[in-house]
Specification:
Blueprint (H helix, E strand, L loop, with lengths): L3 H29 L4 H27 L21 H26 L3 H31 L3 H12 L12
The protein binds MU-OXO-diiron.
The site of MU-OXO-diiron (FEO) has 7 residues, from helix 1, helix 2 and helix 3.
Length: 171
């Protein structure tokens, strides 16, 4: 049994991860409609990862005998100024998710819920990688994105991204 405040935060995190998947699909759609299929591929895979994150939080809640409550997922309400803009917004979004996970971590520590702290350790590390990848995309775009050949090569690089299942497995 977990502290009810922690369960509430974990359920909210399921919703935030599913919203992240929605947001990244929206970004994929933006690039797809502009014939940048590599960028679209990168964001479709990112959306798959977010769904995985949601499923991990869901499973953790259920494994602890708690109720998993699905909440409404908001439609992404964003517009993109140019090709670089989704990359910047994705980086900002990852920073928001990191803060959210750190907030649960902090709350779990305060109530001595060390099981949840241990579960969240994987996400703390994962967020470090997520932020780095998103920041790398912005930096690469700043270096090469304004040149058509550079944009073509970046799109090809993004096309090469393949999905891999999360290293964390919950039975
Ligand atoms: Fe689930 Fe990109 O954080």
């Amino acid at each position: 049994m977990l502290n009810s405040d922690i369960v509430k935060l974990l359920n909210e995190q399921v919703n935030k991860e599913l919203y992240s998947a929605y947001l990244y699909l929206d970004m994929a759609n933006y690039y797809e409609s502009r014939n940048l299929g590599g960028f679209a591929n990168w964001f479709v895979i990112q959306a798959q990862e977010e769904r995985d994150h949601a499923m991990l939080f869901r499973q953790y809640i259920l494994n602890n005998g708690e109720e998993q409550i699905l909440m409404q997922i908001d439609a992404p309400d964003v517009t993109y100024a140019d090709y670089k803009d989704p990359l910047v917004k994705a980086f900002e979004h990852e920073q928001y998710v990191t803060a959210s996970i750190h907030n649960i971590y902090d709350a779990a520590l305060k109530v001595k819920d060390f099981r949840t702290v241990q579960f969240l350790d994987w996400f703390v590390k994962e967020q470090g990688e997520e932020e780095k990848n998103a920041d790398d995309n912005v930096k690469k775009f700043e270096l090469f994105g304004s040149d058509p050949k550079g944009l073509f090569m970046l799109d090809n690089e993004m096309k090469a991204r393949i999905y891999s299942a999360p290293s964390l497995i919950l039975d």
